[in-house]
Amino acid sequence: MRKQSFKTWLIGVLLTVLTTVPTLSTPTLAEEFGGTEPGKWMLGFRVGFAPLTQQLSDNTSTSIGPLVNFQGLYSLNTWLLVGMMLEWERHGVSVERPDVDLGHQDTVSVLPTLEIRPVRLGQVIPYVNMSFGVNVNSFGEDTAIRISPSNTFAWRLGWGADYKLNDRFALNGEWAYKRNDGHTTGTGGRNDDWNASSFGFLFGGKMFF
């Protein structure tokens, strides 16, 4: 079921990209090729929320958690940036039957990042980015049950837009998918059914210099 829903989501993303790219390439919208200046640094700070893409584990429910994101990127040319992203999220976890709060999972993701900014539409700069790195997971227990989630491989795909206020500052909104699929150990042994992959919705600002 999880694989089928992920494939459905991925097909939807690809269809969205295929329908959006021709629109962005029309003369009326694509005012400039390339959405940044070469040799510029970009620092971003965003906050938001993150629901999981599926049930964390059997017989568990998980809250929509807070999300904080820092990023620093350097533009190699007018459309390609490279750098690093650091992201934190937290989710409360409980057992469904019987209803018992287990605690909360924290995830810190360290993500080397590649970002593409193909066009600039006036003050609006759309982009897509991709990151590969590591999810450092930890669990804070509210009961005597011990839970130790594994650190996992992180793959993040994000897309969003900046709204330039001037040459130095911009408002930002971004939506992203992040893979965080692993296992836990602790009371009761090993649990291989532990998937904290999530969608992230971020809002904030960026500085260019």
What does this structure look like?
The protein is built from one helix and 14 strands; from the N terminus they run H-E-E-E-E-E-E-E-E-E-E-E-E-E-E. The protein is mostly beta strands and 209 residues long. The protein has one domain: Beta Barrel (Porin). The strands form three sheets. An eight-stranded antiparallel β-barrel has the order 2-4-5-6-8-10-11-14. A three-stranded antiparallel beta sheet has the order 9-12-13, with no helix packed on it. Strands 1-7 form a two-stranded antiparallel sheet. The longest helix is centred in the N-terminal third of the chain and has 23 residues.
Could you give a short description of this structure?
By secondary structure, this protein is mainly beta. The chain is 11% helix and 61% strand.
